[in-house]
Amino acid sequence: MNVATPIRQEKTIGHSVCPHDCPSACALEVDLTAEGRIGRVRGAAENTYTAGVICAKVARYAERIYHPGRLMVPQRRVGAKGEGRWQEISWETALDEIADQFVKAEQRHGSEAVWPYFYAGTMGQVQRDSIERLRHAKRYSGFFGSICTNMAWTGYTMGTGTLRGPDPREMAKSDCVVIWGTNAVATQVNVMTHAVKARKERGAKIVVIDVYDNPTIKQADMGLVLKPGTDAALACAVMHVAFRDGHAGRAYMAEFADDPAGLEAHLKTRGPEWASAITGLSVEEIEAFARLVGTTPRTYFRLGYGFTRQRNGSVAIHAAASVATVLGSWKHEGGGAFHSNNDIFRLDKRELVGSAFHDPDVRMLDQSQIGRVLTGDAEALRHRGPVTALLIQNTNPVNVAPEQRLVKRGFLRDDVFVAVHEQFMTDTAQLADIVLPATMFLEHDDLYRGGGHQHILLGPKVVEPPPTVRTNLFVIEELAKRLGVADCPGFRLTERQHIDQLLANYGIGYDEMKERKWLDCQPAFDEAHFLNGFGHPDGRFRFKADWTGTPAPNRPPKAMGAQGPHGQLPEFPDHVDLIEVADERHPFRLATSPARSFLNSTFAETPSSIQKEGRPEVMIHAEDAAELGIAEGDVVRLGNGRGEIRLHAKIGGGTRRGVVIAEGLWPNGAHLDGEGINVLTGADAVAPYGGAAFHDNRVWMRRA
Fold first, then answer.
1. Domains in the chain: how many in total?
2. Most exposed of 327, 337, 349, 515 (fewest Cβ within 10 Å)?
3. pTM
4. Do 221 and 262 share a domain, yes or no?
């Protein structure tokens, strides 16, 4: 049975951190019942960012930890891949067989035939990143993590030179909060906590910019629903109006920006009429938004990830951040532009990831192109040998990766060995050769940092795991022993020892962190607001972009080079049609937006989340539906050159004409034909430094 018991029976409340792939990294309080089980999970009221508020799906975490479908014992595939027949085996046998398969793969094709594949199923530093130490020690193929952050981080730092910004808690001190490209009600609930506080206490206006009338727009004072991939056009028009109407902070730009005169000249022809034709917004909507932010010095631009998941996504977020610079918003408390605080943290990860034995000559493979890698695409393989063995932790590529048909084809190859360490029998686990059961975050120690805020947080072990499941660190350590690298630096350490090393730069360790619960690492006001200069060598914000000559947080290694059609990126902020523009054959633009009750492919197994989300559906504008003879609930077929799937129609949903929205990453098996939405998404690398354009797909649609 899956029975969790408190480590210390006398406790009634445990303190932890939400581990999931979300910028909020919420501080948690966990009720521990008299029977030794977790009860309600709440946000920690003492944490000044979480402020006692968490999303409903995490509050119901007991559904996950005690789910009857949770994986409990190691299993070996019996019969054909995907057939669904399994044999229980011991941990010793499972680990022996995985190590044996890795050795055989290396003997046949060299060490790069093994690809440790992971991502952000947990954001805990130890349990997520220890796999990197194994791959460095064994010279296995490298992992270029492109699927989430690349376009956003590249575009934001193109302007600022570093990945930080004004204290996110300052949203509560703003007079206007612009939530741009993130459905915060569904994906970053704490953004709404601080924005709504500003509205209640200061009368602040909340503006939301997105591609459909989602729950966040419904809470806004001004909601702007534009066409996917056109955000930069809106930003350009707002800056045009600022220069035109005298709202531009000319003295501020003279001190802190690189070429305001060049930008102003560039924007002369990019006014509201021009942007209206591109975005679908009315001239009046654009003028009203430009007037609001132009006359409100304390405007806080909270820039999300969603609007960057386009083939012009880096350009879009650079343009949006440029608005704050043209207006001089950065100099005000409650003003400026914020995306992530990733660069403020000083964790020492060298031994955790095995930096000492990293070999730059080992090839890096693009996470987003796993389908191409496993089906032998020469370019995706960097013109080297095949990948024939994988260890997968913290991710579910058969469901979440683009070009799903290619991905599944690769996993079904008989000459590809796959070991998956998981909590549930995901789409990826179903196609594995060996499946290992994994702990959940309340069952192990780890350390977290919040990209959406400024805290490093400790998530100590609160309950004992079921006796037959193991941590990620355990699996890495045991494989290291079997593969002959356990004596390399960083191995043979416990979670607590790793946490002590991670925190060395702060002069504290696990025990003190357990007492403190978190560290507030927010830089001083002048540094956070760049009043001492931006992060570029000259201290100036860059309007004029050097898209391949500027450092970026997740720039691919030199051997990979710049990605995508980087030569077509504009010098100044501008709309650029690198997106999959709708055409006669594919008249609709599809965005695969997050659902409120899921988080990527997580929570898609819990009963309450399934009940709240219903079924896989596609939102269609009523007039588009009428033209196609589609009624509410009809089965429709969506397709493009990558494949086609069937979904039920949901008429309305606040979409624009020609735009369709599929919310939520449902398991493939929840769809009518057993194929999920990522059949339709592409894995072509986004300029300039890679990434996956999940919200940038042209499709055709018809009644099935």
1. 3
2. 515
3. 0.96
4. yes
Q: Tell me what percent of the chain is helix, strand and coil, each rounded to the nearest 5.
A: 35, 20, 45
In a domain, 14, yes or no: no
* Structural domain that includes position 472: 75-146+349-441+466-517
Tokens of 73: 């014992």
pLDDT value of position 71: 98
Query: Is residue 200 domain-shared with residue 260, that is, in the same domain?
Result: yes
Helix ranges (H only) for 296-411 are 313-327, 350-353, 370-374, 397-400, 404-411
Burial of residue 687 (number of CB atoms within 10 Å: 0-12, 13-18, 19+): buried
121-162 tens-digit pLDDT: 999 999 999 999 999 999 999 999 999 999 999 999 999 999
Say how far apart CA 599 and CA 62 lie, in whole Å: 16
Q: Is pLDDT at 3 greater than 50 in this prediction?
A: no
For residue 283, tell me if it sits in a domain: yes
Cβ burial of 129 (10 Å; 0-12, 13-18, 19+) is buried
State the DSSP code for 702.
E
3-state secondary structure of 672: coil
- CA atoms of 222 and 207, how far apart (whole Å): 5
- 393 residue type, one letter: Q
Helix (H), strand (E) at residue 476: helix 472-483
DSSP string computed for 129-192: HHHHHHHHHHTPPEEE--SSSHHHHHHHHHHHSSS--S-GGGGGG-SEEEEES--HHHH-HHHH
CA 482 to chain CA mean position, Å: 33
Q: In this structure, which amino acid lies at residue 458?
A: L
CATH number at 116 reads: 3.40.50.740
Q: How far apart are CA 269 and CA 592, in angstroms?
A: 33
Amino acid at 241: V
